[in-house]
Design goal:
heterodimer; A: mainly alpha; three-stranded antiparallel sheet; 24 helices; 8 strands; 62% helix; elongated; B: mainly alpha; three-stranded mixed sheet; Skp1_comp_POZ (chain B); Skp1_comp_dimer (chain B); SKP1-like_dim_sf (chain B)
């Protein structure tokens, strides 16, 4: 390429100085340009564009951007458009809310589009240069976004709030004819739904005492409401359907306690909530719960809680109907596969098998005339793998008589199934105490550990019961808290000092003034409506542990079949496989891969560190 | 074919075929917005462009009127400066002042082809020259103090790698 010097002119004349490009513009000048443009935009919005000169406006916008005032122009544009829509359009639209609303809105929308096109044209230089360089929305899109934002305070939200299904249907049909019209409505509905959902979900977080049942019920009601709109106003439009689903998924997973609460809700329905409901109603409620279940990202957390709650229901005989339990499990099976439900089914089997064993045991006792010391024993044998594990078996001293009864059962069982081990789990059982007080005989239904008190209560009158506390610390803590939890009319023991915690120096008195209408009084550990924070953390830890194993298993499975794979692809495959249970983060997957490399399940290829091979 | 009248900053009017004029996206938009396709009497004022430059622009556009539309700028593709056609090279054998005015006009009128070729020409004038040479070529005053310069060189070392 030839050097282009000063062309054919002589050096003296031809050496033109490149005019220093005017980098700074007089502030007043910029002001005046902007004023001109602003006025023009407003005239366009008022449909008064015939008197405007395109070239002049284009040139002015060009000059502004060229002199680095693009941002000023962009911001100014946003303000003018928003202001116009807020003032003029919203006013018109709201005025017509009960009358011609849709026609007015439609007109406003069309006018807006037309003016945005014209505005875009005069500001085309800014669109081309400033917008690209600063990665902001171009003029036309900006106009759409602002219009949609304004709609929030106008019709659509109003209609949603007041259930104006027919009006929404009309709007849907009308906007269907306009490009991007439906999308605008969908965005507006989505925003409203997300707000509602978020409010529900986060309200719970700020109020620790919220009931899980109401939480889930209100979510179900919200879903019902929007499904109603979907069917009756939006014609089951797929876009709206998908949008509602993704919104629910979004805010349901905002609250980490959602899986637990959903499980509690179902637990409630399967316990007592089912009474008085027709079969169809029950089926409906369970199906709706399944819909929410599908939205959960942390399905494995749900599984853990469901197991816990099911175990309690089964062991405490709280389940209203075995059929509905099995029904629910089969729904979960359809959704998640057998792996999810195999343990739950195992729990059911254990219950049936235990019943059979008890029948056989009773026969055995009668035949062999064993004396159980007046204890009416009922044992349930649980297979360890199926039932939720307790953190630590608390120490509990079983008094002599029931212990002997248990031993005879143990001998009987081990004779039938040699090679097995039986461990007594006192906290899962309960014991009925027969206590003789002054006055009519009363039954105190207590957890195991407290049955030691039966003998002592019956034998003497008032006076401190110090020895109760020495015997079984764990259970007494729960009982005392229960005593405090219930009202004093139900307390059978008075406590000194009157604090919630129990320590070994505390004393119990028999409350002589205790009366109860019931012959049987249940003293239980305070039924947790939800877990306490430390328990929740523990559950969360267990879940994380399990997830580590599941990720490693998935990695090994995939590598075993493919033999060789690049890191990114492996991460994607693992996520694919596990996403029906939870969403693993790529960072954690990476850590597990490194762990497996250390343990020599995988190796890195020498030529590329990012490719792994399976080590047989 | 219909014509359109373009008026330069110094009052001169040029009558141009509408199709040729439309190679300028700015003029094209103007016409479409104002529905002027059929109007033959309207004059489009271009106060940003003087007659000498406008004449050159029209000359270029007329020659290139059958060119296929330029492709979208592929960000990843490396831009070349050695693919200027000989006609364009000849066309651009002008003094620097004119060259830069052509760039401004092409920018304003949004004529991608002309903008590209004029910028490439200037790029070629810069390529391979040391800073002092560049200053000489374009008659640029050196307003860099020594410290600014060394910092600038540091910050922009990456350009040198290629």
């Amino acid at each position: 390429m030839s050097t282009m010097k000063s062309g054919g002119l002589t050096k003296k004349e031809g050496k033109m100085r490149i005019r220093a490009f005017p980098m700074t513009m007089d502030e007043k000048y910029v002001e005046s340009i902007w004023a001109l443009l602003k006025n023009a935009i407003q005239e366009i919005q008022k449909k008064n564009n015939s008197g405007l000169s395109f070239e002049e406006l284009y040139r002015n916008a060009y000059t502004m951007v060229l002199h680095k005032h693009g941002e000023r122009l962009y911001t100014g544009l946003k303000e003018v458009v928003t202001h116009h829509l807020e003032l003029k359009v919203r006013e018109d639209v709201l005025k017509s809310l009960h009358n011609n609303f849709l026609m007015t809105l439609n007109q406003a929308w069309n006018d807006h589009q037309t003016s945005m096109v014209m505005i875009r044209d005069i500001l085309m230089y800014m669109d081309r240069v400033y917008v690209q360089q600063n990665d902001v929305d171009n003029v036309y899109n900006l106009g759409l976004i602002i219009f949609r934002d304004q709609m929030e305070n106008s019709g659509v939200v109003h209609m949603l709030k007041h259930q104006k299904t027919e009006d929404l249907a009309c709007m849907y049909k009308l906007f269907g004819r306009v490009t991007d019209g439906l999308k605008t409505i969908a965005d507006c509905v989505s925003q409203y739904l997300r707000e509602q959902g978020k409010a529900l979900v986060q309200e719970e977080e700020h109020q620790p005492a919220t009931n899980a049942i109401t939480f889930v019920q209100s979510l179900l009601d919200l879903k019902d409401g929007f499904d109603h709109f979907l069917k009756n106003s939006f014609n089951n439009d797929k876009i709206f359907k998908q949008m509602i689903a993704s919104d629910f998924e979004h805010f349901l997973n905002l609250n980490p306690k959602s899986p637990e609460y959903l499980s509690l809700f179902i637990d409630d329905k399967l316990k007592k909530g089912v009474k008085g409901m027709s079969e169809q109603d029950i089926e409906l409620v369970l199906d709706k719960s399944m819909v929410l279940f599908r939205f959960l990202q942390e399905k494995d957390v749900f599984e853990r809680y469901y197991k816990q709650h099911l175990a309690k229901r089964l062991l405490l005989n709280k389940s209203v109907s075995d059929d509905w339990e099995k029904n629910m499990i089969s729904k979960l099976k359809t959704e998640c596969g057998c792996q999810f439900t195999s343990k739950l089914e195992g729990m059911f089997k254990d219950m049936t098998v235990s019943n059979t064993i008890m029948d056989e045991f009773k026969e055995h006792i009668t035949k062999s005339e064993t004396n159980l010391g007046g204890v009416d024993l009922f044992m349930r044998v649980l297979t360890t793998g199926f039932w939720p594990t307790q953190s630590a078996t608390p120490k509990c001293h079983i008094p002599a008589v029931p212990l002997a009864a248990f031993e005879s059962f143990r001998r009987f069982y081990l004779a039938k199934h040699s090679g097995r081990q039986l461990t007594l789990q006192p906290q899962l059982g309960n014991a009925d105490l027969n206590a003789v007080f002054y006055g009519p005989k009363k039954d105190d239904s207590d957890k195991d550990g407290a049955c030691s008190s039966s003998t002592s209560l019956a034998s003497s009158r008032s006076g401190p019961r110090k020895h109760i506390i020495q015997v079984s610390t764990y259970q007494m803590v729960s009982i005392a808290i229960t005593c405090y939890g219930k009202s004093y009319t139900k307390n059978s023991d008075k406590k000194i000092p009157k604090t919630k915690e129990i320590e070994s120096s505390h004393e119990f008195y028999v409350n002589d003034s205790f009366t109860s209408k019931l012959h049987r009084v249940k003293i239980q550990t305070v039924a947790a409506k939800g877990e306490s924070e430390p328990e929740r953390r523990e559950t969360r830890n267990k879940v994380d542990e399990d997830r580590k194993h599941e990720i490693e298993a998935a990695i090994v499975r995939i590598m075993k079949s493919r033999k060789r794979m690049a890191h990114n692809i492996l991460v994607t495959e693992v996520t694919e496989q596990l996403k029906s249970r939870f969403l693993p983060s790529p960072v954690i997957i990476k850590k597990r891969i490194e762990g497996l490399i250390e343990r020599e399940y995988l190796a890195r290829t020498p030529e590329d560190r990012k490719v792994y091979t399976y080590v047989a | 074919m219909p014509n359109i009248k373009l008026q330069s900053s110094d009052g001169e009017t040029f009558e141009v075929d509408v199709e040729i004029a439309k190679c300028s996206v700015t003029i094209k938009t103007m016409l479409e917005d104002l529905g002027m396709d059929d109007e033959e009497e309207e004059v489009v004022p271009l106060p940003n462009v003087n007659s000498a430059i406008l004449r050159k622009v029209i000359q270029w556009a007329t020659y290139h009127k059958d060119d296929p539309p330029p492709p979208e700028d592929d960000e990843n593709k490396e831009k070349r400066t050695d693919d200027i056609s000989s006609w364009d090279a000849d066309f651009l054998k002008v003094d620097q002042g004119t060259l830069f005015e052509l760039i401004l006009a092409a920018n304003y009128l949004d004529i991608k082809g002309l903008l590209d070729v004029t910028c490439k020409t200037v790029a070629n004038m810069i390529k391979g020259k040391a800073p002092e040479e560049i200053r000489k070529t374009f008659n640029i005053k050196n307003d860099f103090t020594a410290s600014k310069k060394s910092r600038f060189v540091e910050e922009n070392e990456w350009c040198e790698e290629k």
